[in-house]
TrEMBL record:
Residues 60-94 form a coiled coil. Keywords: ATP synthesis, CF(0), Chloroplast, Coiled coil, Hydrogen ion transport, Ion transport, Membrane, Plastid, Thylakoid, Transmembrane, Transmembrane helix, Transport. It is found in: Membrane; Plastid, Chloroplast thylakoid membrane. Signal peptide: none annotated. This is ATP synthase subunit b, chloroplastic. Belongs to the ATPase B chain family. F(1)F(0) ATP synthase produces ATP from ADP in the presence of a proton or sodium gradient. F-type ATPases consist of two structural domains, F(1) containing the extramembraneous catalytic core and F(0) containing the membrane proton channel, linked together by a central stalk and a peripheral stalk. During catalysis, ATP synthesis in the catalytic domain of F(1) is coupled via a rotary mechanism of the central stalk subunits to proton translocation. Component of the F(0) channel, it forms part of the peripheral stalk, linking F(1) to F(0). The gene is atpF. F-type ATPases have 2 components, F(1) - the catalytic core - and F(0) - the membrane proton channel. F(1) has five subunits: alpha(3), beta(3), gamma(1), delta(1), epsilon(1). F(0) has four main subunits: a(1), b(1), b'(1) and c(10-14). The alpha and beta chains form an alternating ring which encloses part of the gamma chain. F(1) is attached to F(0) by a central stalk formed by the gamma and epsilon chains, while a peripheral stalk is formed by the delta, b and b' chains. One of its GO terms (molecular function) is proton-transporting ATP synthase activity, rotational mechanism. InterPro entries: ATP_synth_b/b'su_bac/chlpt. It holds the Pfam family ATP-synt_B.
Length: 178
């Protein structure tokens, strides 16, 4: 253990010393200075801190208000997006329905056109058949008349011709008299 000696009011040890005289050590002066600084600075720092606190609170309130407004705008934008999506879906559905109706109309018109062409073709074929039949009948009739005429020329002599002429005159006289 070390031995401490009290010299005046100082406690002395071999190397480290403690001055117990407060006036001499300026501890009292330092305490007074610190308390004065705290008193003066508390008002100054208090007003600065109050201003800073008010500014921070104002900034927080302003940020919260902007957050609320942003959330309101976000909700409105989401509603508009949902409404726009509904409208887009309606437009797509209407476009599909319209495309289906147009396709069905085109197919129906195509069927009608095919039916008209078929009927027109059938009518043309029927007309051509009738025309060919009429031409064939006329040719057959002409050939038959030619054949009959040939036969008559070969079979009719002058006596028969006179007899036919007389009968025709008699028939004409009967018609005139009536």
């Amino acid at each position: 253990m070390e031995i401490f000696q009290i010299v005046g009011q100082e406690l002395v040890s071999s190397g480290v010393s403690f001055n117990s005289n407060l006036l001499e050590a300026n501890v009292l002066n330092i305490l007074l200075l610190l308390s004065g600084l705290i008193y003066v600075l508390r008002k100054f720092l208090g007003s600065v801190l109050d201003d800073r606190q008010n500014k921070v609170l104002f900034a927080i309130r302003e940020s919260e208000e902007r957050l609320k407004q942003a959330n309101v705008r976000l909700n409105e934008a989401e509603k508009q997006l949902a409404q726009t999506q509904i409208i887009i879906n309606e437009i797509i559905n209407e476009a599909e329905i319209t495309a289906r109706k147009v396709r069905e109309s085109i197919l129906e018109q195509g069927k009608l056109d095919i039916d008209k062409l078929t009927q027109s073709s059938k009518a043309s074929v029927k007309f051509a058949e009738n025309t060919v039949k009429l031409q064939i009948q006329q040719q057959i009739t002409a050939l038959a008349l030619q054949k009959v005429e040939k036969q008559l020329k070969s079979q009719i002599n002058a006596v028969m011709q006179n007899k036919i002429i007389d009968q025709s005159i008699v028939q004409l006289e009967g018609k005139i008299n009536l």
